[in-house]
Design a protein that fits this description.
The complex is a heterodimer of chains A (112) and B (111). Chain A has 112 residues and is an all-beta fold. Helices cover 0% and strands 57% of the residues of chain A. Chain A has no helices and eleven strands. In chain B, strands 2, 4, 5, 9, 10 and 11 form a six-stranded mixed β-sheet that branches. In chain B, strands 1-3-8-7-6 form a five-stranded antiparallel β-sheet, with no helix packed on it. In chain B, strand 9 and strand 10 form a beta hairpin. Chain B has no helices and eleven strands. The termini of chain B are far apart. Chain B is 0% helix and 59% strand. The chains are: A mainly beta (112), B mainly beta (111). At the A-B interface, strand 5 and strand 10 of A face strand 4, strand 5, strand 9 and strand 10 of B.
């Protein structure tokens, strides 16, 4: 059974803090993705990675960075958290680009 | 025109009803079509996957793709309260190697 896990379900941080969100997949997938999901805006792609140490910007990369040092692990970093980054963050993975993606349970981040 | 349009609802039906959820799209290169179900405060889970045109059935769920009309549908027969969730369509194909998602339709099935 496919499995994508995220480090936290709920997270509360203060403005200006550095925030790390971690995602791990056990399916040996090449591709991993970070999305944020907001009411009325749907899923928006922040960054994705198609190989270890390789990354590409998605639709809304500003204020975020990513790291992929190992195939199974993909981290999203908020260098200096701001209140407008309060959101649900979802990680996903896929075998091929354009293929079905498998999602983790999500991290609900609140920035105060 | 947005690439993928999906009526956000909300849609409220009685238990046992047949539910029809739909998406329209503008990119004729799309050829892979998916439906995801997302329960409140959870991640989306893959429900159905179809390639190109035609129907695919899995239990109470049927996915339908009409590429000529650029229209996809998900039918739920004998709907149950446990089907209450947000349903997201997604698609990809051609030079668009990323998934393009609809914004989701919120469905409530009332006992």
């Amino acid at each position: 059974d496919v499995k994508v896990t995220q480090s936290s379900r709920y997270l509360v941080k203060r403005t200006g803090e550095k925030v790390f969100l971690e995602c791990v997949q056990d399916m040996d997938h090449e591709n991993m993705f970070w999305y944020r999901q907001d009411p009325g805006l749907g899923l928006r792609l922040i960054y994705f990675s198609y190989d270890v140490k390789m990354k590409e910007k998605g639709d809304i990369p500003e204020g975020y960075s990513v790291s992929r040092e190992k195939k199974e692990r993909f981290s999203l970093i908020l260098e200096s958290a701001s209140t407008n980054q309060t959101s649900m963050y979802l990680c996903a993975s896929s075998l091929f680009l354009g293929d079905t993606q498998y999602f983790g349970p999500g991290t609900r981040l609140t920035v105060l | 025109q947005k690439e993928v349009e999906q009526d956000p609802g909300p849609l409220s039906v009685p238990e046992g009803a047949i539910v029809s959820l739909n998406c329209t799209y503008s990119n004729s290169a799309f050829q892979y079509f998916m439906w995801y179900r997302q329960y409140s405060r959870k991640g989306p889970e893959l429900l159905m996957y179809t390639y190109s045109s035609g129907n695919k059935e899995d239990g109470r769920f049927t996915a339908q793709v009409d590429k000529s009309s650029k229209y996809i549908s998900l039918f739920i027969r004998d709907s149950q309260p446990s089907d209450s969730a947000t349903y997201l369509c997604a698609m990809s194909g051609g030079s668009n190697y990323k998934l393009t998602f609809g914004k989701g339709t919120l469905l409530t099935v009332n006992p």
